[in-house]
Structure formats: C-alpha cells, structure tokens
Amino acid sequence: MKIDFSSIIGLVFQGAIDAAKKASSEWAKEATQDAMAFVNSSLPKIGRYVDFLADGEIDSEEFKSLMMGLKDLAELAALTQIEKSEIKIQETRNAILNAVTNVVVGAVSKAI
Amino acid sequence: MKKTLLALPLLVLLSSCALFGPLVSSFDQNSFNAAQTIKVEASALVPKGFEAANLHTWEIDNLRSKLEAQVAYEKGKGKPNLVSSKQWEILAAKDHDLLGKFLNDWKGEKKFSRVYCREKSEQIEKALDEILNAEGAKPK
What we know:
The structure holds two protein chains of two kinds.
Chain A: H1 5-54, H2 60-111
Helix pairs in contact in A: 1-2
Chain B: H1 2-19, H2 29-45, H3 57-75, H4 82-92, H5 99-107, H6 114-136
Helix pairs in contact in B: 2-3, 2-6, 3-4, 3-5, 4-6
C-alpha cells in the first residue's frame, strides 16, 4: 500500500486557497456595497438635521445627539459586517475541513 | 495498519473540530423575537418623548427592563455571540445615543422637541433593524 502524501498536501492547499479566495472576494464586494449604502443613506439625514437646527426645530444638544446617534448606527453596521466576515470564515473553514476529509478519505480508499 | 489508516480521516476531523470552536453563535429565534418586540414598543413610545415622562412611567420602565434583560441574555451566550452582544450594549448604553440613553434622559425629566423625538425614533428603529439583520445572517 502506497499513499502519495505530497500529492494529498498539494490538493488540500489548493482546496484551501480556492475556498479562501472565493469567500474573500464575495465578502469584500458585499462589505463595500453595504458601506456605500450606509454613507448614501446618512448624507440626506445630516442635511435634514442641519436644517432643523437652523430653523430652531431642535436645539444644539439635540442636534449633537442625532449626530452621535448616526455614529452609533455606523458602529452597529460595522459590527454586522464583522459578524458576516466571521460567518464567511466559518463557512470557509468548514469547506476546507470537508476538502481535507475528502482528499484523505479518497487517498486512503485508493491505497486500501 | 489498515485500521490506523482508516482512523486517520476521523482523527483529522475530530482534531479540527476540537481546535476550532464556532466563531459565530447560531440563529436564536428568542433574540430575533425580542428585537422585533422592542422595535415595535420603542416605535410607539419614543415619538411621545416630548410629553412629560410621568405620563409614560410604566412604558418607560417596562421597555428599560426588557432592554436590560436582553443585554444580559446576549452576554450570557458567551464569546461566539460577541458581535450581537456588543450591538445590544450600544443600543442600551447610557453613554451612547440610542434607546438606553433616550429612556434614561426622558425618565430624568429631560425635555425633548417633537422633531427630535421623531428623528431619534427613526434612528432607534434603524438600530434594531441592524440587530435583526445580524441575527438573521447567523447560521441556522
């Protein structure tokens, strides 16, 4: 019985690289789109708050609170992105684990 | 020899699972429902923030209790739930500018304008949407 371990390691690394590349490109695109959507939705709100302050409908303390609220929303959105990236890492890890298992099982079955 | 080789994939699998625990907690229907309930109640209450707090004492206290209980629940899930736990903390914190601070200030007899309450309510709804989005993305 002979098992070609160098070939197994090569296949495992290739599987890992492919899975990581796929996950990172998908996530980067999604994260950029979400960040742009957040900025685009925040800009009109800031303009609205400035108008309310200028018209005396809110005071400076309320204006500051609304701006700080926007900052908190940005932080929440960033945390969601972190979680989504962790989910991608977890999925990639599972894909790599499956690839490793399949390669090793395949090699051992052939050798037996 | 055969047995040893057959055990190899199993060993790889087991050691990988043992070395790496889950990075993210699983979807929790209780957390999702709690976020939806708090969103509905906050959307009904916060726009009334220009009124005197003593007219809404029960609703303010009830919402604060639910918020604090949820923060404790999320923290209790441990490290894989760190992101959700942090999001709930921000929503409830008195040193941030979302639901926790608003309820605290209102209860402390702070006066708000009608416009401010409407805008803050929108921010709080958006914050809860973000929490729902993060919970909904978790593996089922």
